[in-house]
Amino acid sequence: MSPGQRLESLAVWSGSLLEPLEARNSGELIAERLVTAIALGQFVRGQRLPPERELAASLRVSRTSVREAIAKLAATGYVRVRRGRNGGTFVTGECDPEFAAIIRRTLLPNWDRLRSLLDFRSSAEAEIARLAAERATPSEREAILATAQRYVDADSDRAASRAADAALHEAIAAATHNPFWQQLSLQLRAEVTFGLGTEPFSAELRQRAEHQHPALAEAIAEGDTARAALLAQEHFSLNDELIDRVLSGTANDARERPGPIGEASA
């Protein structure tokens, strides 16, 4: 069986790598997951968090648990809740002394599992890009190129960048003409983003993606399967680097630092 065939067989797997929060705890764990998302740039200063209903649906928890988590974050200054017509829950960008400890509690116990997930995602998205380059119709190739340009044109607009990024990878997955690959791509995005749906983000990450997206789109449009797979794998390693950097930066000493993605733990 070829590597592509092995990945195709994995694409039909429908189990979840993301354990439902309420099976373990409630408000406190949701709050810690949101703090970690802030550390990874999934949410930034001044940004409004999704409504309670959306967060509850994304995280597969009750709205009561989400409300409890928001209250904890507001009490410690991570968010500010505004009432009224233009109200909502907004990220303050403030960090209390527990900030680093919270990130370690969220990521360290699951580091090996997360590392394996990130590694699997890179391989899966490489195969998705290879298949897209092989199977995309002329109109799909044009749409992929246009969506990649949309990301470039978004420039510093974070919301537009996020929307274009999601649209690009969804268009690439759709070009495989295989619903299992499309489902797997969406599921892996949910897993890697801790159920929140927004990818880790930094200015450096966006700058690199601004060059990678058009190159990946061009490889697919030209039908260059090998280059498309290589570029996709390279592109999806960006999240690995960011998560590793954030976690390593919170470690108190070298004994707490996990190894980089792709290396075995000590």
Overview of the structural elements:
The structure is a single chain. With 266 residues, the protein is mainly alpha-helical. It has two domains: 22-96, Arc Repressor Mutant, subunit A, CATH 1.10.10.10; 111-249, Four Helix Bundle (Hemerythrin (Met), subunit A). The chain is built from twelve helices and two strands; from the N terminus they run H-H-H-H-E-E-H-H-H-H-H-H-H-H. The chain has helices spanning 3-10, 27-39, 52-59, 63-75, 99-107, 111-135, 138-154, 158-174, 179-192, 203-221, 225-235, 237-250; strands at 79-82, 88-91. The protein has a two-stranded antiparallel ribbon with strand order 1-2. Helix 2 (27-39) crosses helix 5, helix 7 (138-154) runs antiparallel to helix 8 (158-174) and helix 8 packs antiparallel against helix 9 (179-192). The longest helix is centred in the middle third of the chain and has 25 residues, at 111-135. It is elongated.
Supply database-style keywords:
disordered C terminus, Four Helix Bundle (Hemerythrin (Met), subunit A), two-stranded antiparallel sheet, 266 residues, 2 domains, mainly alpha, elongated, Arc Repressor Mutant, subunit A
Topology:
Blueprint: H1 3-10, H2 27-39, H3 52-59, H4 63-75, E1 79-82, E2 88-91, H5 99-107, H6 111-135, H7 138-154, H8 158-174, H9 179-192, H10 203-221, H11 225-235, H12 237-250
Antiparallel strand pairs: 1-2
Shape: elongated
In terms of structural class, how would the helical and strand content be classed? mainly alpha
Mean pLDDT: 83
Main sheet: which strands, in order across? 1-2
Rounded to an integer in angstroms, the radius of gyration calculated over CA atoms is 19 Å
Report the total helices.
12
